[in-house]
Amino acid sequence: xxxxxxxxxxxxxxxxxxxxxxxxxxxxxxxxxxxxxxxxxxxxxxxxxxxxxxxxxxxxxxxxxxxxxxxxxxxxxxxxxxxxxxxxxxxxxxxxxxxxxxxxxxxxxxxxxxxxxxxxxxxxxxxxxxxxxx
Length: 134
Fold this sequence. Notes:
Blueprint (H helix, E strand, L loop, with lengths): L2 H25 L4 H14 L7 H49 L16 E3 L4 E3 L7
Antiparallel strand pairs: 1-2
Helix pairs in contact: 1-3, 2-3
């Protein structure tokens, strides 16, 4: 393979990664067969002939790029859910402290199942943002 071919493949793969990012957005709306046809058209559009090594490399690059982007999205969603859970747990800790501080204060109702917080499984007592412990 000469230098021009290697440069052509490299620049095509760079364009492919950009286009692949856009294609991933659309891939959720198409079947696997439709996606494969789109991938084939994309590689053919780059000038690769079906049945050649360059075409095969292009197809592998498209699939690998899609897998990487899907994995990144999955990891970002997991991180987002972990952060949401951390914030929720932190808010519940604040509710527990507030409920305990209000204990005996008749201006607040006693916390129960309908309270906005929940139940402290360790002490088996209810807590909430606007109620008091017994």
